[in-house]
Amino acid sequence: MTSDHPPVCDYDGSDYQTTFWDQSDRQYEDLVEAIALKRLLPPGGKILLELGAGAGRNTSRYHQFDRIVLLDYSITQLKLAQERLGKSNRYLYVAGDVYRLPFSPGSFEAATMIRTFHHMADPQRALMEIRNVIQPGGVFILEYANKRNLKAIVRFLLRKQSWNPFSPEPVEFATLNFDFHPKTVDRWLQSNGFIIKKRLTVSHFRLALLKRLFPLKVLVGLDSLAQWTGDWWQLTPSVFVLAIPEGEPSPVNSSGIFHCPECRRSHLEERQDILLCPVCQRTWAIHDGIYNFRAAI
Question: Dihedral (C-alpha) 21, 25, 26, 27: value to the nearest 10 degrees?
Answer without folding.
Answer: 100
